[in-house]
Amino acid sequence: MTKISFIGGGNMARALIGGLQSNGYAMDAISVIEPDADKRQQLHAEYGVHVTEQLPSVSSADVIVLAVKPQQLRDLAIFLGSLLHEQLVISIAAGIRSQDLARWLGGYQAIVRVMPNTPAQIQAGISALYALPAVSAAQKEIADTIMQAAGKTVWLDAEQKMDAVTAISGSGPAYVFYFIEAMQQAALELGLSAEDARLLSLQTFAGATALAAQSSETPATLRAQVTSKGGTTERALLSMDTAGVKNAIIHAAHAAAARSAELGDQLGKE
Ligand SMILES: NC(=O)C1=CN([C@@H]2O[C@H](COP(=O)(O)OP(=O)(O)OC[C@H]3O[C@@H](n4cnc5c(N)ncnc54)[C@H](O)[C@@H]3O)[C@@H](O)[C@H]2O)C=CC1
Ligand SMILES: O=C(O)[C@@H]1CCC=N1
């Protein structure tokens, strides 16, 4: 079993470990290096993974997943470089470009950059992957297998596309949760119980998403099928258009992509 060492045991590492566990991955092949003692204890209790605060323990891993904040990556990578010997390095940090990471690692090139998302924890994630040219086909296969335990994978032909991916699928779950929050609040205001508000809004999302995925019709056509002339949906959509909801969502995604590029520019300079 490929030994995986996560550096950083926060939200995204937990999501990926949860996905690996649900997929039957041996939890004793996974270790997590995390400075926060409470998080270490929780990870060990919940998943049975090895936990430590000692960075040198990565030496025994086959794959190292860098799961710290983008702002924490450079200092970590500078230490990590001397501990590497043929391991595959997977970075999930938003914005940080592979060549900047390679430079911080002292020229180490076996790097796959990945943008996962949190539905990974129930194997419903999607990850985009980009490999530096030095990464072998076998290493790409390993990265793909690990990320498939968390959901679907897509390989990018140009790293520049990571900014767009980050804005759509990386940050995207938060946009969907935001919409669900709004739907549930409206349901409560309209007099439904909390239980019904949750069930009705979540099943509506799940059903509409499944329909959009399975149907050959475009989302616009599916939307038109809900919208009776002079009816309730028409009134709701008019309200959304007047408030500029669609444009706000599009602008939000552009803002996220711009922030991803900005993180790469700012942090990559160092
Ligand atoms: N949360 C999300 O939805 C997604 C996050 N990402 C990326 O994943 C990375 C991690 O994000 P989160 O898990 O949300 O952050 P987080 O803050 O929950 O986790 C980061 C963890 O790294 C630990 N840490 C800090 N310095 C460390 C060091 N030197 N060695 C070992 N561990 C250290 C922290 O104690 C913390 O537990 C970020 O780079 C983010 O851009 C990517 C896709 C989605
Ligand atoms: O908000 C962030 O910066 C990270 C990257 C994508 C999702 N969470």
From TrEMBL:
Biological pathway: Amino-acid biosynthesis; L-proline biosynthesis; L-proline from L-glutamate 5-semialdehyde: step 1/1
The keyword Oxidoreductase is assigned to this record: yes
Q: Which Pfam families match?
A: F420_oxidored, P5CR_dimer
Q: Which InterPro entries match?
A: 6-PGluconate_DH-like_C_sf, NAD(P)-bd_dom_sf, P5C_Rdtase_cat_N, P5CR-like_CS, P5CR_dimer, Pyrroline-COOH_reductase
Q: Where is the Pyrroline-5-carboxylate reductase catalytic N-terminal domain?
A: 3-95
Identify the residues that the record assigns to the Pyrroline-5-carboxylate reductase dimerisation domain, covering every copy: 159-263
Which residues participate in NADP(+) binding?
Answer: I7, G8, G9, G10, N11, M12, A67, V68, K69, P70
What molecular function terms (GO) are annotated for this protein?
pyrroline-5-carboxylate reductase activity
Does the keyword field hold Oxidoreductase?
yes
Main subcellular location of this protein, as a coarse class: cytoplasm
Q: What is this enzyme's catalytic activity, as reactions?
A: L-proline + NADP(+) = (S)-1-pyrroline-5-carboxylate + NADPH + 2 H(+); L-proline + NAD(+) = (S)-1-pyrroline-5-carboxylate + NADH + 2 H(+)
Query: Which cellular components does GO assign to this protein?
Result: cytoplasm
Q: What is its EC number?
A: 1.5.1.2
- One annotated GO biological process: L-proline biosynthetic process
Keywords attached to this entry? Amino-acid biosynthesis, Cytoplasm, NADP, Oxidoreductase, Proline biosynthesis
Determine the domain of life of the protein's source.
Bacteria
**Family to which the UniProt record says this protein belongs:** Belongs to the pyrroline-5-carboxylate reductase family.
- State the protein's name: Pyrroline-5-carboxylate reductase
Q: Which organism is it from?
A: Methylovorus glucosotrophus (strain SIP3-4)
